[in-house]
Amino acid sequence: MKRKIIAYNFELTEALEKLNEQFEVHVFDSINPKTDPVFKQVLKNVEGIVGLALPVDQELLDQAPNLKIVSNNSTGYNNLSIEEMTKRGVMGTNTPGVLEDTTADAIFGILLASARRIAELDHFVKSGNWKGHLTTAEYAIDVHHKTLGIIGMGKIGAAIAKRANLGFDMNILYHNRNRNLQAEEKYNANYCDLDTLLKESDFVCLMTPLTPETENLMGEREFKLMKKSAIFVNGSRGRTVNETALIQALRNKEIHGAALDVYQIEPIKLDNPLLQFPNVVTTPHIGSSTYETELKMAELAVENLLAGLTGKRPKNLINP
Ligand code: DGY
């Protein structure tokens, strides 16, 4: 009998084929893992899970006594209760090292789109409002030579700094748990405390992983510290931002605008006030979502899963 694994929100068939040869693969897409009866039934005998953003908590682990590994198809792993998994001998892995440039392209892209009002002016053209010379009502703001503050200078943060400094002559400020000397040397990034970054940046780009320390990192106080002319960009996780505070800051014009790829609840609800602001650019968590990069991530996730299920140490093991 083949060993059972679950593929959760993991649809790339090229990567899945490799698993189908060896395992009984149960594919689940967009189900509620807390309530779906078939999912709960399969969990009882499953040895491995590969996929995206499955909340692996005590409740799930209790239902999966044979589970050996959860291979996350993402760099972020805030969905995994690593401490609880470690206690039970369940491995957790992620997919770093293959998506940094792609994610930096996307996040710098929404920064540009927000500053230059690309989505808004696309709508302006397509809805027939372009009737003559542009007026100040259509003007945007410059990106080049401005100051970009990056909160979270890991590999993706550094790839954004590269684009900003080498391509757009931007000054880079950053705040991080540790100094990133490479980014300082290569992209003229200057380390500073969070408040200084917020006060001095024209663009504030949040790129931290979601941890207990970074949850709600951006709240009322932080938005008030930002320049009124500044744009806030979130490429990390929605829960790093207090959305109510962001909405208030936008309503009170405490900041100029925002570019968001991540939200407290994904998919974002249509009645979320953030969707009402013309000066907020929104994308559906597209950071790594290009065909090329998603395939590389999926292959790495499969490699990690196979290692864990064949008694080898997975390349991207997260457990301490
Ligand atoms: C990541 O890899 O963490 C991306 O945000 C996709 O979830």
TrEMBL record:
Domain D-isomer specific 2-hydroxyacid dehydrogenase NAD-binding positions: 109-287
Entry's Gene Ontology cellular component terms: cytosol
Domain D-isomer specific 2-hydroxyacid dehydrogenase catalytic: 14-319
UniProt keywords, alphabetically: Oxidoreductase
SUPFAM superfamilies (alphabetical): Formate/glycerate dehydrogenase catalytic domain-like (SSF52283), NAD(P)-binding Rossmann-fold domains (SSF51735)
CDD domains (UniProt xref): GDH
GO terms assigned for molecular function: glyoxylate reductase (NADPH) activity; hydroxypyruvate reductase [NAD(P)H] activity; NAD binding
Pfam family for this entry, one: 2-Hacid_dh
InterPro entries for the chain: D-isomer_2-hydroxyacid_DH (IPR050223), D-isomer_2_OHA_DH_cat_dom (IPR006139), D-isomer_DH_CS1 (IPR029752), D-isomer_DH_NAD-bd (IPR006140), NAD(P)-bd_dom_sf (IPR036291)
Family as reported in the entry's similarity comment: Belongs to the D-isomer specific 2-hydroxyacid dehydrogenase family.
Name the record gives this protein: Gluconate 2-dehydrogenase
Species, as recorded: Neobacillus bataviensis
Lineage: Bacteria, Bacillati, Bacillota, Bacilli, Bacillales
